[in-house]
């Protein structure tokens, strides 16, 4: 176990709550827009009653926020449930939060986990984070540190800073993974780069406990074979045809604004790296990518260099 300084106890406590979740929920609600006139509100509610999933999600937001209607959490939960049943990931997450906090519905962490999982399996990073916390705490589901790490990692790989911090903590303490200060330090630095308030403190605490060899390893270029979870062998007969769609992915976000902010941070940190940054939207996520590269080998060499500067592994992607 990591030496339990006072700060380490704080890191553990922070991992076992939802510090980012409710604030993110509020932000998501406020970002969805509000009807400017009573007529627009009535049109929205009419579409929701007719079964439009997007309108049902927005109707839930209206009642949750009290925008042009009286605030009514129970009514909000009703509309979220209807949209959630139609597969809207954001509605599933919002409904899970309401069950988790007992807002508008009776508090039920089993139901919260059910809906977190539904949204998490669709790739919603904040839902993956909260599902990981549920497994870490054993709330609404059997405690399972391996599953906690799995969901933290999925969210962390999408750029969710609280998940990156949580992953740093589990590596530092050896919870569900073999204790690894190098990986803990890498994830803590990445979370800190996105403004996580305590990740920088964790990175500093770890650096005081790491050996010189461990610090050197933390900045060692990545093994090219690990750039993808299931790297496919390069087919020389098709390499030329694919040479224009090979990119390195540095993050993925659920909102354009988040992606643009992190891309600006990366651009300022890295400067000119020989290939342009770009945003690529797919499957409900906005991805930060660099490229294109002429071949997978060229991309892997670039990834080695970037890993040493960023502290995390870029992913090789084809568009």
Q: What tags apply to this protein structure?
A:
319 residues, globular, single chain, alpha+beta, 4-stranded antiparallel β-sheet
What would your notes on this structure say?
With 319 residues, the chain is of the alpha+beta class. Helices cover 60% and strands 8% of the residues. The protein has helices at 6-15, 21-31, 38-49, 53-65, 73-85, 89-101, 109-120, 125-137, 145-156, 161-173, 181-193, 199-209, 212-218, 236-242, 256-270, 296-310, and strands at 246-253, 277-282, 285-293, 315-318. Strand 2 (277-282) and strand 3 form a beta hairpin. Helix 11 runs antiparallel to helix 12. The radius of gyration is 21 Å and the shape is globular. The relative contact order is 0.09. The model is unreliable at 1-24, 29-33 and 221-243 (pLDDT under 50).
């Amino acid at each position: 176990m990591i030496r339990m300084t006072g700060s380490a106890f704080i890191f553990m406590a922070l991992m076992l709550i939802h510090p980012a979740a409710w604030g993110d929920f509020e932000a998501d609600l406020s970002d969805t827009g509000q009807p400017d006139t009573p007529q627009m509100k009535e049109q929205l509610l009419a579409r929701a009653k007719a079964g439009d999933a997007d309108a049902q999600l927005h109707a839930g937001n209206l009642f949750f926020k009290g925008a042009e209607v009286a605030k009514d959490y129970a009514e909000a939960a009703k509309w979220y449930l209807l949209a959630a049943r139609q597969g809207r990931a954001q509605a599933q997450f919002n409904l899970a939060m309401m069950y988790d906090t007992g807002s508008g519905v009776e508090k039920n962490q089993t139901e919260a986990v059910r809906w977190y999982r539904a949204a998490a399996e669709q790739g919603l990073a904040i839902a993956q984070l909260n599902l990981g916390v549920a497994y870490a705490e054993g709330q609404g589901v059997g405690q399972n540190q391996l599953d906690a790490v799995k969901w933290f990692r999925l969210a962390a790989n999408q750029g969710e800073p609280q998940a990156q911090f949580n992953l740093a903590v589990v590596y530092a303490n050896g919870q569900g993974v073999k204790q690894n200060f190098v990986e803990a330090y890498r994830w803590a630095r990445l979370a800190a780069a996105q403004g996580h308030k305590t990740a920088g403190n964790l990175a500093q605490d770890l650096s005081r406990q790491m050996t010189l060899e461990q610090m050197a390893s933390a900045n060692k270029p990545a093994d090219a074979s690990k750039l993808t979870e299931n790297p496919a062998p390069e087919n020389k007969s098709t390499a030329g045809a694919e040479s224009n769609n090979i990119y390195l992915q540095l993050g993925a976000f659920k909102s354009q604004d988040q992606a643009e902010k992190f891309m600006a941070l990366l651009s300022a940190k890295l400067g000119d790296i020989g290939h342009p940054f770009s945003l690529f939207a797919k499957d409900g996520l906005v991805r930060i990518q660099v490229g294109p590269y002429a071949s997978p080998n060229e991309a892997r060499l670039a990834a080695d260099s970037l890993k040493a500067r960023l502290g995390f592994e870029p992913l090789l992607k084809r568009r």
